[in-house]
Write a structure and sequence with these properties.
Length: about 160
């Protein structure tokens, strides 16, 4: 079993290639989160929800409506295995581990190299929240409280700078 605490590492994703394998709700959520930090996202799935397709049409992400291939991971920094096929997610994870690619496997914390934290963002400040608890309400409560503090501080700093 992995540690319940993780090192909070902030990474510049602006020039890193990211692949999201899957076209459903989780793939959409992960893609929206990543779009806050980069535009180098390719979403690959044979079927995709309408919002992801619209993001592709708008040029926000690269959409590939087809099954994922091993070659899709060439020159990739990070992969999100968010398909609804657990066997496929496992295969993606194995390839990523072999190739030294960071991988997040939706629904499988044990296999994931990193988690998606609760995010608090105000101006150029970013705070990531992760709890060791399986209770997601704790993370949500901590994120909401932290977000309020960050928002208050950001307003204060803006006033001081004026």
């Amino acid at each position: 079993m992995k540690n319940s605490r993780y090192f909070p590492m902030f990474v510049d994703l602006s020039d890193k290639n990211i692949v999201v394998a899957g076209g459903g709700k989780t793939a959409l959520q992960r893609t929206k989160c990543l779009l806050l930090f980069t535009r180098n996202i390719t979403v690959i799935a044979p079927r995709m929800n309408l919002e992801l397709q619209e993001m592709g049409k708008a040029g926000r992400v690269n959409i590939q409506l087809r099954p994922i291939r091993r070659s899709d991971f060439d020159n990739t920094y990070m992969v999100i295995a968010a398909s609804q096929d657990w066997k496929l997610n496992d295969q993606i994870c194995k390839v990523c581990k072999e190739e030294g690619i960071y991988v997040n496997v939706s629904g499988d914390k044990e296999e994931s190299d990193f988690y998606f934290p609760g995010l608090c963002i105000a101006d150029d400040s970013v705070i990531g929240i992760q709890t060791g608890s399986a209770d997601t309400s704790r993370k949500r409560e901590l994120r909401e409280e932290t977000d309020q503090v960050l928002t208050r501080l950001t307003k204060k700093w803006k006033t001081e700078d004026e």
